[in-house]
Amino acid sequence: MLRPPDSASPPLDADEARRRIAKLERINAALMAHVERSMDQQGGAYSLFQTATMLEGRVRTRTEELTGLMHRLERSNAALVAAKEEAENANRSKTRFLAAASHDLLQPLNAARLSASALADLALGTEALAISGQIERGLQIIEDLIKTLLDISKLDAGVVRPAIKPVALTDLLAGIIASFRPFAERKGLRLAVRGPDLVVASDPLLLQRIVQNLVSNAIRYTRRGGVLVAVRRRGQASGESCRIEVFDTGCGIAQAEQDLVFEEFFRGGAEGEGGEPGLGLGLSIVRRMALALDHPLELASRVGHGTRMALTLPVSRTAPERAVAMSPVATRLTGARVLVVENDPPTADALERLLRAWDAEVCVHRDLAGVEAALAAGMTLPDLLVLDYHLDNGACGLGVATHLEARTGLRRPVIVTTANHSPEIEAEVAALGAQLVHKPVRPAQLRALLTYLLA
C-alpha cells in the first residue's frame, strides 16, 4: 500500500505531482467500479457494509497520500519562489558591488588620465611623447573594461531601462563611420555605409553602442578588403522594420564558435589589431543590449570569407528631434576663473595642472567649508564651477553651486563630475541646469565644454 510521504522526502516538481495525482484518480475510479460490481453481485446488507468499510479505508489512504503530494508540491513551489528571489537579490547585490567598486577604481584612473593629458601638453621629446601615448592607450583599455563590466552587470540585473524614441539612422551611422574611418584607413581598409534615410524606434545611446561595437569588431578582425554598414527596409505593412547589417571581409568565425562569441571573455583564435585579441566583451554586451531593446540579432559567417551581423528594428512613423547646432567657440581659456571642488587629492592636482596649462586661473578646494573660508578671505568669484558630485562625509558637490547662488544672487555655469552613471544623479544635475561629465574625464571633452559654457 502507498504511504503518504514524510517531511524528509525531496520536493516534487509540478509534472511529477500531476502524474501522481492522475494515478490516484484512476485508482479511485477503479475502486468505485469495484464497489458497484460487488453491490450487483452480493446484494446483501452485510456484504454492502463490508464493501463500504473497505472502500472507506482505501479512500482514506488515498486521500492522505493525495494530501501529502499536495503539501510537497506547495513546498516545492515555495522553494522555487525563494530560490528565484535569492538569485534576484544576488544579482542586485552584484550590481551594487560593481557600481561601488567601479567608482573607486575610476577615481585614480581619472587622475591618471588627466595627468597623462597634462604631460602630453608639455614640450616633450619624441620618445617621451610615444611613452605618453602608450600610457593613454593603456588607461583607455582599463576604462573600457571597467565600464563594460558595469554595463553587463546592469543589463543582467534589469537596471537599464531603454528610452525608445525616433532615431535618424543617417545621422547616427554617419557619426559612427566618421569616428572609425581613421582606424580603417590606417589598416588600408574600405569603410562605407549604404541604405535609405530611415527613422527607427530605438534607444539612441544603446543603438549607437551596438553599432559601434559591431563596426569596431569588424575592423579589428579584418586585414584586407573592407567593412560595409548597410541599411535594408523590410516589410510593407504597418509593422514595417529594417535591418542594420555590418559586413566584413575578415577571417570569419567557425561554426563551432558562432554561439561562443557572445559569451564573456571569449576571444577565439583570431588576432586583432597589433596581433592582440580584444577583451572578449564587445559581442557579449551587444547581445544583452539587443535583448533589452527587443531588436533581434543574427550572425552569419564563413571562415576565410567574412562575417555578417544583422540587427532588426522597427521603423518609426515619427520624425526625430533635431539638435540645435552650436556656433564655433574659441578654444583658449586665458584668464577664466575656475573653481574646482574635488575631494580626491590626485584628481584635484591633475585637474589643476591641466586647467593651468590651458591658461585658466584655478582655485581648488575639498568641500563647501573650504570654499566658504576662501570667500571670507576675499576670493574673487569664479566664472565657472567644476564640482565633484560625491564629496567627503556624504556631502554633495551640488551644494556648493546652490550656496554660491544663494550668497551672490548669480548663477554660474556648473560642470559636475562623477563616476556614477545612475539616472537619479543625471536628473538631479539636469534640474540644477548643470552639465554632467562622467569620470574618467576626457580632457578634450572637458576643454570643449569649458569654452562653450564660458562663451
From TrEMBL:
Q: Which GO terms describe its molecular function?
A: kinase activity
Gene3D superfamilies the record matches = 1.10.287.130, 3.40.50.2300, Histidine kinase-like ATPase, C-terminal domain (3.30.565.10)
Signal peptide start-end: none
Q: Which UniProt keywords apply?
A: Kinase, Phosphoprotein, Transferase
Q: What's the Enzyme Commission number for this chain?
A: 2.7.13.3
According to the entry, every stretch annotated as the Response regulatory domain falls at 337-454
Which SMART domains does the protein's record reference?
A: HATPase_c, HisKA, REC
Per its record, the protein catalyses: ATP + protein L-histidine = ADP + protein N-phospho-L-histidine
Q: Which residues carry this modification: 4-aspartylphosphate?
A: 388
Q: Where is the Histidine kinase domain?
A: 100-317
Q: What is this protein called?
A: histidine kinase
